[in-house]
Write a structure and sequence with these properties.
The chain is 28% helix and 23% strand. The chain is α+β, with helices and mostly antiparallel strands.
Length: 195
């Protein structure tokens, strides 16, 4: 399935591990907040724990931005719990600040277009979902490179600034920098004429 920015983010309800317990969560539970939804290939691997712990370490910053973080992989909730219960020094996650969702059926990964069908794992997909449940940002890349949480908070701040002011953020915009007057949506007639 192919999804695009500006479309509704596919809803899901699934088992997760959060605060050391099994819980059922739905994306719709987060309506009214920004959501950073990220997919990773597998538990007990090499790059994945560096990303998950980085997201957990940055969680307070995401939280101050009215954003929740949700991680998803095709592993079982039991595998998630075992990995969380393994200390970081021993290759585990230790306590983390957000839920890890079990996508054992692979339906969530498939609905977001990140499932590698042959391998049965998800690519490193990341989606920022706005408070109305629409996709605002997506990036998907190969398995061997982890993501940068600072870039994700920068992008999140830019979308929030644009939503609050109606202005647009130029290339390399960072918090405190100038925005620009104008609305890309109002530029449709320009693009229709000039491609």
């Amino acid at each position: 399935m192919s999804i695009q920015v500006q479309q509704d983010a596919p809803n899901f309800t699934a088992d997760a591990v959060f605060d050391g317990e099994f819980k059922k969560i739905s994306l719709s539970d987060y309506h009214g907040k920004w959501v950073v939804l990220f997919f990773y290939p597998l538990d007990f691997t090499f790059v994945c724990p560096t990303e998950i712990t980085a997201f957990s370490d940055a969680y307070e910053e995401f939280n101050t931005l009215n954003a929740e973080v949700i991680g998803v992989s095709v592993d079982s909730k039991f595998s998630h719990l075992a990995w969380i219960n393994t200390p970081r020094a021993e290759g585990g996650l230790g306590d983390i600040n957000f839920p890890l969702v079990s996508d054992l059926t692979k339906d969530i990964s498939r609905s977001y277009g990140v499932l590698l069908e042959g391998a049965g794992v998800a690519l490193r997909g990341l989606f920022v979902i706005n408070p109305e449940g629409k996709l605002a940002y997506q990036v998907v890349h190969d398995l061997n490179v982890g993501r940068n949480t600072s870039e994700i908070t920068r992008v999140l701040k830019a979308f929030q600034r644009s939503a609050a002011t109606g202005e647009v953020c130029p290339a390399n915009w960072d918090e405190g920098a100038d925005t620009m007057k104008g609305d890309v949506k109002g530029s449709k007639s320009y693009f229709a004429k000039h491609g």
